[in-house]
Write a structure and sequence with these properties.
By secondary structure, the protein is mostly helical. The protein contains 4 helices and 2 strands, in the order E-H-H-H-H-E. It has one domain. The protein has a two-stranded antiparallel ribbon with strand order 1-2.
């Protein structure tokens, strides 16, 4: 009985893992709004938005760069915007969905 090697996928999704991690953190973020842990949420969202934006540039999917830059600016921990309330809590979930969509659609063709 001979076993055949599975054919490798033609595409790779480099942004999938960081987008899943960022989405998990942002789905939990509304519960952390009034705590000291929200600073960590800001760091995670900003760093992963920049990473995913870079993967979008590498994949030549430029339409993901503006949303990722917007997330990086709005969630930045260095010069934070004083957002509060229900709209800011809903923005956490909306950004999580943006991360999930970007991670699912940003892909690059495998070489070789």
């Amino acid at each position: 009985m001979s076993r055949t090697q599975p054919t490798p996928a033609m595409y790779q999704r480099n942004a999938l893992a960081p987008s899943l991690l960022a989405a998990v953190v942002l789905f939990v973020a509304p519960a952390l709004l009034a705590t000291d842990w929200f600073l960590t949420v800001r760091f995670v969202a900003t760093i992963f938005a920049l990473i995913i934006g870079w993967f979008a540039v590498q994949a030549k999917q430029w339409w993901w760069v503006p949303p990722m830059l917007a997330i990086a600016v709005i969630w930045n921990p260095i010069f934070p915007f004083p957002f509060l309330g229900t709209i800011w809590g809903a923005a956490q979930v909306a950004a999580a969905f943006v991360f999930l969509a970007a991670g699912a659609t940003i892909k690059t063709r495998r070489e070789g």
